[in-house]
Structure formats: structure tokens, C-alpha cells
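ok trying this again, last paste got cut off
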Amino acid sequence: MLAALLLAAGPAQALDSIDMNELTCATFTGYDDENKGTIMMWLEGYYTEEDEPAVIDFNEMAGHMAKLLLYCQENPDKSVLDGSEDAMD
């Protein structure tokens, strides 16, 4: 599902860099789908334990994104890293 969203998003404005410590939910939710997907891929790697298999589960990632987007809608001034702690469970 997420992969289809990313492919259908069309042209997007590429970001030069993101300080994940400074990224707020309001900023994250304002990004296009391609940039949100890139951030989610980073979060998936960030929260993956060293001994876990090197597998990308797009369905699981879509679920994590849905949880994070719900958190961010309710907490626009909070950090994405704060919200991702619960969303990535």
C-alpha cells in the first residue's frame, strides 16, 4: 500500500537534509508522500534491532506510518521522534 502511494505521488520536491531531532509533527505531515516515505524508511532502520533480519515489510511500515500520522495530527507541535517511539511498536 505504501509503495503504491509512493509511486503514485508524482514529482516531489527533494529535501537536502532533515535534522530528525528538530522535525515536528506539523512539518512531517506537511511533506509530500515521497518525503514521508523516505522518513519512514529511515525510522524503520533506526528502530530495527541489530539482530533482526534485513527485511523491509511494507505492510508493517504502512501501519507504523498510519500510527505516526494519527499521533502527529493530535500533537502537531511534538517531535516526530517522540511520536515514533510508540508508532514503531
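PB: full thing came through this time. The domain at 22-87 is CATH 1.10.890.10 (10k-s Protein, Hypothetical Protein A; Chain A).
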